[in-house]
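Hi R.,

As promised on Friday, here is the backbone we talked about, encoded as C-alpha cells. Could you run it through your design pipeline when you get a chance and send me back a sequence?
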C-alpha cells in the first residue's frame, strides 16, 4: 500500500508540474485555424468564438467524465470485496 501511495503522489506531482508549465500552445488543426481567420474579418467573431470555445470545452470534458466513471465503478466494485 505504501508503494501505491508513492506512485499516486508522484503522478499527482508530475501532473501538477505539467499543468503549471508555461508552454505556448500554438498547435491547432488547420480547419479550426482557417475558420477563425476567415471569421475574424466579419463582425460575427464573438458568436463564432464562443461556439468554438464551447465545443472545445465539451470535447475536453468527455475523457475526464469517462475516466471518472470507470474509476468510480472500479472503486465501488473493489469496495464490496
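Update: got your reply. Pasting your designed sequence below so it's all in one thread:
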Amino acid at each position: 500500500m505504501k508503494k501505491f501511495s508513492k506512485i499516486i503522489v508522484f503522478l499527482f506531482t508530475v501532473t501538477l508540474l505539467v499543468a503549471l508549465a508555461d508552454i505556448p500552445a500554438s498547435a491547432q488543426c488547420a480547419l479550426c485555424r482557417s475558420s477563425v481567420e476567415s471569421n475574424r474579418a466579419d463582425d460575427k467573431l464573438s458568436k463564432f468564438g464562443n461556439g468554438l470555445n464551447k465545443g472545445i470545452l465539451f470535447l475536453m470534458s468527455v475523457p475526464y467524465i469517462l475516466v471518472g466513471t470507470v474509476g468510480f465503478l472500479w472503486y465501488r466494485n473493489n469496495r464490496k470485496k
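One thing I noticed while checking it: The chain has a mean pLDDT of 79.

Thanks again,
M.
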